[in-house]
Design brief:
The protein has 174 residues and is mostly helical. It has one domain. It is built from six helices and two strands, in the order αββααααα. It has a two-stranded antiparallel ribbon with strand order 1-2. Helix 4 runs antiparallel to helix 5 and helix 5 runs antiparallel to helix 6.
């Protein structure tokens, strides 16, 4: 009886922190790691490797979202001339105002797409799609910088590309 009460308390605690507890035959009481509202959530024990992968993906998604919100937001709210004057965005000298704003908008939308669909469970397939879109953005950035002979931004572009690819693959397979 005491064990039942203790198990019930643990289950209630898990529910209060995560909102969902698994009812799968083999994993009753395990935390659901799939996005909220998913049609067929999978269940895993929090001590398993799946939870570590999920946590790592959330960290990468959050960091990428912050980077793209900041970079895209600046492109949307600041003038192209002011951005060029900062000395770090020389490629903008040859780009139109509309092109810079379009890149900023794509970056902001990509940042939101990395987090919101998976977090809310509303169209979670948009999260890996957004990650693939940001891979394409970085491929374009790499091309622009290589053509212009700008070597300094290449490591950051490659890092962002790899991290977005990790999110895309991780969320597609997970």
């Amino acid at each position: 009886m005491a064990g039942e009460a203790q198990g019930g308390a643990a289950k209630a605690e898990v529910q209060s922190h995560t909102g969902v507890v698994c009812d799968c035959a083999d994993n009753v009481g395990s935390v659901v790691l799939s996005p909220p509202g998913a049609d067929s959530p999978f269940c895993e024990d929090l001590s398993g490797s799946e939870s570590s992968v999920d946590i790592a993906l959330w960290i990468v998604q959050g960091l990428l979202a912050l980077v793209y919100l900041a970079a895209g937001g600046l492109k949307l709210v600041r003038s192209r001339e002011r951005l060029v004057a900062s000395g770090h965005l020389d490629w903008m000298r040859d780009a139109s105002d509309a092109a810079v704003k379009a890149v900023g908008l794509v970056e902001v939308l990509g940042a939101l797409g990395l987090v919101l669909p998976w977090l809310t469970g509303i169209a979670p397939a948009l999260t890996p799609t957004a990650a693939v879109g940001l891979v394409v953005v970085q491929l374009g950035a790499l091309r622009v910088h290589l053509v212009r002979g700008e070597r300094k931004p290449l490591p950051a572009n490659v890092l962002l590309l790899v991290l977005a690819a990790v999110v895309a693959v991780g969320r597609l397979l997970g």
